[in-house]
Each structure stands twice: as structure tokens, then as C-alpha cells.
Amino acid sequence: MLIVMDTYATAEQVERVCQEVLEMGYQPHPMPGPTRTAVCITGNDGPVRQSNRLSLLPGVAELIKVTKPYKLVSRDWKAFDTVVEVGEVEIGGPAIVVMAGPCTIESREQMLEMARTVTSLGATVVRGGAFKPRTLPYSFQGLGEEGLKYLAEARSLYGVPVVTEVMETETVDLVAEYADIFQIGARNMQNYALLKRVGRQGKPVLLKRGLSATVKDLLLAAEYIMAEGNKQVILCERGVRTFDDHSRFTLDLSVIPVLKELTHLPVIVDPSHAAGQYARVIPMSRAAIAAGADGLIVEVHANPAFAVCDGEQSLVPSRFEELMRQVERIAAAMDRPVAGLPSMAHGAE
Ligand code: PEP
Ligand code: MN
């Protein structure tokens, strides 16, 4: 349920409403808007009982029943876009943000070289996996904390935030020591214990869509994180399974405008894991930006033939440079600059 306050409701009246919600055994989430404040109620599994206790309070304009199962992620509660701020990087603002780096951190030299390369070409967030969810239990599982150290070194050398996957509740605090953004991988999108844990940790979360997750599943996973108090969630479309196997996964571009309609959270696209093949990464990146994505997360490797993981879909630096050039042109058509590049949309100087 949403409690919509009068335009001139005072802070005390909003506070009184929140207090009443707490006394009823629910959680209040006030959201000040440009014209009035709306207070979202969570914690109810079904209709809010005794809602008259709320409608009669001073300053309350109306009560709106929220029929969607997700609340805090919904535009009903927050009409304007969420901008996730990580250091100087704003995800979900006017500028397109490109995150790039290797699938897996292989060595200190590789991580630092890739970070230098991608940041020099315009990436403003660096990625690198230290804990890898591998389909085969015998495949390389990542360098663990050693890898996180290299990633954090890249962050301090190049002054950019870093994103890495966290796979288990037990390693959330460890990953938080080194990373700026937690990545929840597709295979863990419905690991509710993990979602709650990163929801309490508080750092921004890049939540990847599950391999067969519906939009509702994805939004409810984000709701888990937000319900714990962490409002800094970035959604990521990375392809889903369909009947066809011409690509690794089917990139669901239609989800971008759908998510933009339903939620205020930023939406980015991972063309690498969807395509599974480097030659398809640039076209899918162009399409994602044209469809309204706020950014991309792309795998880059200096020597893909020798990559420990996901070499086939990794771009060599020269192709990543080409990706940035093309994305910049598409972004300009959408009147959006690309963070990290001089803006073509507003005239480069
Ligand atoms: C990754 O980003 O390296 C990864 C494993 O992604 P996903 O969870 O989307 O498969
Ligand atoms: Mn990968």
C-alpha cells in the first residue's frame, strides 16, 4: 500500500504516519517526491489490516492499493529514476556508463594491464572475477582473495570503481573490503540469503537476470535487496535461455523499455555473456544503448585464445576501442553522452 501525503504535509505528519505503520507491525518507506511524499508499506503478505488508522491521520491525502508484488522497485513508489553513485561515477544518470575488464582475474599483470587499457579507452568501472561460478566443478574457480587484491590495486592505480561477483553469504564482507560494487551473478539471482546479505551490507549491487528468470522474478530479487535497506541496485540483462541455440543466450532487448516503465532502477546490458561470441558483442552493444540501456558490462582480454574463461566472447583492446566509438555515436543519437569520453551529444571541445 502507498500512503500519499498532502502537498503541504509537514515532516512531523510524515513521521507520525511512519510511526503508526511501525506500530501496526509493518515497515514504512517514505519517498519525498517533487510535489508530495509517498510512504510505501512493506512487510504485509496480503491486504494491510486496519488501514483506517492511516487514512484518518493528519496530512494523509489518500491510500493507494499497490497491486504489483514488488513495491520499492516500482515506479508507483518512486516515479523518478534512481541514480546509483559510486565514487564519481553515476549509473542511471544521463551518461552511459561502460564497465569493462576480464571475465576472470588471471594474474596481477593481466588485471593491471586490462584495467589500464579499458580505462584509457573510456571505461569508467573495471570488472574482474575472483570467485567464478563455473558450470563444470573441475574448471578454474577463480583466484579468490588474491584476485580481489589485484582488482583493488587496479582501482587505486586508475582511480575507478571496481565490480566483482560475490557468490556466497560467507564471503560478502571479504568482497566488500576490496570491491565498490557487488555483482550477483545470473546463477545466484534467486539466492535469497545472498540477496538479503548484500541488502544489509549496503554497497551498490549489480543484479544480473537469472538464466530463465521472468521480469517479475528479477524485480522481486531486487525487492529483496531493497527491503533490507539497500536502495542502490543496478539491473543487468545478460541473455536468457530460449529454444534456439544460435547464441550462448538470447539477449532480451525488449526487457529494457519494459524495465524502464516498471522500475526506477538503472538498467545495464551484458552483451558478452549473451552473445558468447566476440563478433556479436558490438552489434548487441549498439542495440542495447539504442533501446535505452544506461550502460554496458563487457569482457575484454588481451589474448582471448589463452583466456582462462570466456575467451570466445572477449574483445581484444582494439575491438573494445571500436565498441566505444560506435556506442558513442548511438548514444549521441539518444542525446546521451558516454561517461569517460568527450561528449559528442553536446559537442566535443
Ligand atoms: C560474469 O560476469 O563473468 C558471469 C559469470 O556472468 P553471468 O552471471 O551473467 O553468467
Ligand atoms: Mn564471463
Describe what this molecule looks like in 3D.
The structure is a single chain. With 349 residues, the chain is an alpha/beta fold. It folds into two domains: 2-64, Phospho-2-dehydro-3-deoxyheptonate aldolase, domain 1 (Alpha-Beta Plaits, 2-Layer Sandwich), CATH 3.30.70; 84-347, Aldolase class I (TIM Barrel). It has eleven helices and 14 strands. The chain has helices spanning 11-23, 52-55, 108-120, 145-158, 172-178, 192-201, 215-227, 255-262, 271-275, 281-290, 317-333, and strands at 2-5, 27-32, 37-42, 60-64, 84-86, 89-91, 97-101, 125-127, 162-165, 181-184, 205-208, 233-237, 267-269, 295-299. α3 packs parallel to α4 (145-158) and α6 (192-201) packs across α7. The termini are far apart. It binds phosphoenolpyruvate (PEP) and manganese (II) ion. Phosphoenolpyruvate binds next to loops.
Brief overview, please?
The chain is α/β, with parallel strands linked by helices and 349 residues long. The protein has helices at residues 11-23, 52-55, 108-120, 145-158, 172-178, 192-201, 215-227, 255-262, 271-275, 281-290, 317-333; strands at residues 2-5, 27-32, 37-42, 60-64, 84-86, 89-91, 97-101, 125-127, 162-165, 181-184, 205-208, 233-237, 267-269, 295-299.
